[in-house]
Design a protein that fits this description.
heterodimer, A: 10 strands, about 40% helix, disordered N terminus, B: MetI-like fold
Chain lengths: ~250, ~350
Amino acid sequence: MQNEKLNPAEDIIICHDVHKWFGDFHVLRGVNLTIKRGEVVVICGPSGSGKSTFIRTINRLEEHQRGTIIVDGIELTNDIRNVHAVRSEIGMVFQSFNLFPHLKVIDNVTLAPLWVRKWPKEKAEKNAMELLARVGIPEQAYKYPGQLSGGQQQRVAIARALAMQPKIMLFDEPTSALDPEMINEVLDVMRELAHSGMTMIVVTHEMGFAKEVAHRILFFDEGNIVEGNTTEEFFKNPREERTRLFLSQILTH
Amino acid sequence: MATVSEVIRPPRTSVGVPGWLKENLFSTWYNALLTFGSLGLIYVVLRGLVTWGLTRARWDVVTTNLTLFLIGPFPRDQAWRVWACVIVVILLGGLSLVVWGPVGRRFKVARRWVVIGWFLSFPLTILLLRGFGGNSVLPAVSTSYWGGLLLTFLLSIVGIVASFPLGVLLALGRRSSLPAVRWFSTLYIELIRGVPLVTVLFMAAIMLPLFLPEGVRVDKVLRAMVGFTLFTAAYIAENVRGGLAAVPLGQYEAAKALGLSGVQVMGLIVLPQALRAVIPPIVGQFITLFKDTSLVVIIGLLDLLNIAKSVVAQPQFMGLKREVYLFVAVIYFIFSYAMSYASRRLEVALGVGER
């Protein structure tokens, strides 16, 4: 909280009327969303609703074709320097981990600080070991990703994203590819991260996790936010019929 | 905890020599039959070959002409220059084995020097072999005197070292988002792959001088080297392209999401994985190149195989084709197998952590 003396409630992500098409298919249909510093937002919704595509537009893994996205004061345009600047402030965790299989765990974590931030090796490695300890697997540092379990790999992926000291973390269904007994070890790390004050956007169907840590929950359907509310309200009084249907399906299974 | 259960040994017939024999050679009655049949065949062939090799074969044709096989018509009083190069390469090879070997961790600084040594060794070799002008220490030796295994090696090594980066660049070019680069790379690759190597060598030898300005003469050996490089690069490019296509999209995304630039994504994440996946076909291409160097006969160069031809054409060695060609075949096999073996070792060394 020390470097946020301006306005602690400052908006770190502003999306206005964001549209995206895949060919003829209209994936994002005018999404409006503002996220404050330190806010934890969970996005849920049926598959194909555009929620993954939407969070990928925030670090421009997908380009939006209409509207504006401003991240920490930088607008995302075709200017590649802006894109690099924004990406180095945003950490992303993927459903399929996407660790670099040819690099040891520690080298996965030090790669970006060394090459993007140009840190000296000692600093990058010290930082990496601290992060691996934070996600609970310092003893795996000199193994290759292929030698780790799914849950361990996803925790390395979180450490890798945190190594850049990002201001925002994006999670794209981080536990969907995991065996049930490994889901919790990843959620624990994410819980700790949320409590530390990190700004987080999490696409997930883990409603227990959402109830516990999210400040706000957004329900996505057909390329837009159908309903967005504080966590308590969202579960207690869902306003939209579609939200109620989705919640009944996901909570009763 | 549960008690340690008693270790039960497997039945005797399934382990050790009897187990192996039973499983691999005598598992069924027809396999037993095949085993005996093959043994008989091997016996007949080997008996003939070995008795011929030990009694009737005249290996003196090889020993008398050994220097000729190794360096061709290179002036004998200057031959020490070739041996000097060989010694340098052997020394560098030995050093490399030490610093990258099992105790290599202690020599991290030395590694850099060995790499620099390898880089320097090549121009040094060429300089030493060519000499300069009319001085008496290192008189110039025209490349038309380079021959035998020496020429085969020079052509292959230059071909391998130069075609690899060129091939990688062409592969990247073929996947480039810039249309001009993409079209050029595709056109180049398809043109070269659509033409036999012999044609490329002919072009390099006969057509190229026609395009060059009056008075400019490019060395024949150099032209052959360029020909091999251009030809092999097209095939390497296609192999590498296959490797690039095998790297999952998620790898690009993860690298980009970390803020790496396009060049960094390629150089740090994608290429290392792509190249590792295509080591076998690329080494296969290099082995092909090594053997195809014998095609330089059509532009009048005397590599190992063509030296062999000239040896058996000498009157005193008439009728000794079998000895000579067997010798040459063994030489080709040794080096091809060495490359193949090195490639497998490299795969193992780089494949750590792969599931």
